[in-house]
Amino acid sequence: MTGNKTALKLLGLAALLAFPVLPFSSEYVMHVAVLIMVYAVLAMGLNVLPGFCNLLDLGYVGFYGIGAYTAGILALNHNVSFWLIVPGAIALGALCGMLRGAPTLRLSGDYFAIVTFGFTELVVLFLTNEIWLTRGPLGLPGIPPIALSLEFLGIDWRYDFLSEIPYYYLGLAMVGAVYVVMCRIEDSRLGRAWLAIKEDPLAAASCGINLMAYKTVAFAFSAGVGALAGCFMAQWSMFLAPDVFKFWESFLVLCMIVLGGLGNINGAIVGAVVLIALGEVLRVLLPKLGLPAETRFLVYGLIMILIMRFKPGGFFPTIAATSKKSRLILDLKARLQAERAG
Amino acid sequence: MDTILKIDGVSKRFGGLMALADVSFEVKKGRILGLIGPNGAGKTTMFNCIAGIYKPTEGRIVFDKETGPVDVGGSRPEQMTQMGVARTFQNIRLFGSLPVLDNVRIGRHCRAAQGFWGAVLRTKGQKAEERMLVEQSMEYLDFVGLKNKALDLSSSLSYGDQRRLEIARALASQPKLLLLDEPAAGMNPQETASLVDLIHAIMRKDITVVLIEHDMKLVMSICEHLVVLDHGVKIAEGGPRDIRENPEVIEAYLGRGAAHA
Prior knowledge:
The complex is a heterodimer of chains A (342) and B (261). Chain A has 342 residues and is mostly helical. In chain A, 70% of the residues lie in helices and 3% in strands. Chain A is built from 14 helices and 4 strands. In chain A, the strands form 2 sheets. In chain A, strands 1-4 form a two-stranded antiparallel sheet. In chain A, strands 2-3 form a two-stranded antiparallel sheet. The radius of gyration of chain A is 21 Å and the shape is globular.
């Protein structure tokens, strides 16, 4: 049973690794696969607030934009190394997350959602109007692609990302890393504190959990992950414009995690795969029906409404999913069963 | 005898409503104090003031920490838990979609230390602490008799077991003072009897208990000292016998004229 499961997992991993060399993997398919990975990271990052802490975030894409423009400006104007861009963008994203969080610490429910909604609009306004920094509506064209080099170590090695395939593998590594970090945090003292806040803030505080401190950590972490996705995207698409970070992108990411089941890390990834793939299908299909491609947002809205109505927990509801697979819990389960039998 | 908690002239006003008016009493260390009174008397408001959920409008709440007595009025709930005051809720407030074990692990939150980086890096210290948290939580579950249900969903427990789980969660924070808000509400007579045993077992762990309860048989049988509130005012204080015969208490419970009938 467990042997089969491990085999299946290895097979899945092998399929992911071999994906670019499969015959149907054209440049276009690879592009969509990378796009899915960017959104999978965004979905996992957004999931921290509504999924773990029950704070509805409608402005997540603001952090994506902050990360993307940080990477874009640093790479384009200052020729900064990729090794520095990533931590820099994450740190700035996390800082902005905390700054946005500070005035909203005492808010919950709709009020929190309204503040986050305002935040994305602020980010877009900033990107549009601070022309000295962001070139405003003209956008940032010609961002150099990612280049990994070890020259700072004195080793003469440099690799430029010239096709979709290296982005695919780097994206896979990014999704994997974020996934592992998310799972580890969910099954930890920090993750349980967040889930307690989600379930009942008053009881959580009475258990000794400092709500403000733990929410602040959640804001920073969630925003940092969003910025990470942004800085990957900036050097992958090589062009940024303020319009990319409009509200409906936040809505799309939210739609992904609602589809997958709020609070479920696997669900967030499934949501990203389904909705990005669907977006590509609609992009081809809608013009054939005589509708503009933007109509796809109506379809996302429809999906959201249908899920809320018929499957409010999403396709993978997370009831008691926490720590189910952890070593400690499996050991405990075996011990309890042995005691009951003996 | 040492005083663990001193309520000194505490008032709590909500707009025009005086929920507590100049209430004073002392809780002696190692004893069990019953807080009784008709519905709306201000008992739970008093608990909320002690547990840091409300800030008293007036008065002092002096708690005996290791370092000596401190006025803790207006502290936040998590600070009170850290100092050693734990509570249960009148309307059960478990983390319903989490397993029983996780409820107790969360209850133990303030006696553990690992944070973000420990979780991300899975350091040795973090792993050891996680293992210890499971072991210790299982001990608390064993203590309240829920060991075998550790991995069940907490909302799937029976009403009586949910109350026990709330007690286990509160005990997990290693309190010196435990506030129980109507622990017997909704329990059948057998469950109530085993609750009495549980409270006695808690007392043997050197934990002082303050109990709000409507089940007079239960209160009279286990409390050595009672404080009676009515409309936010303390109307009587003393041993079970004195309270039972106090005309003001009888009037508060049964209405005017009942004491003379």
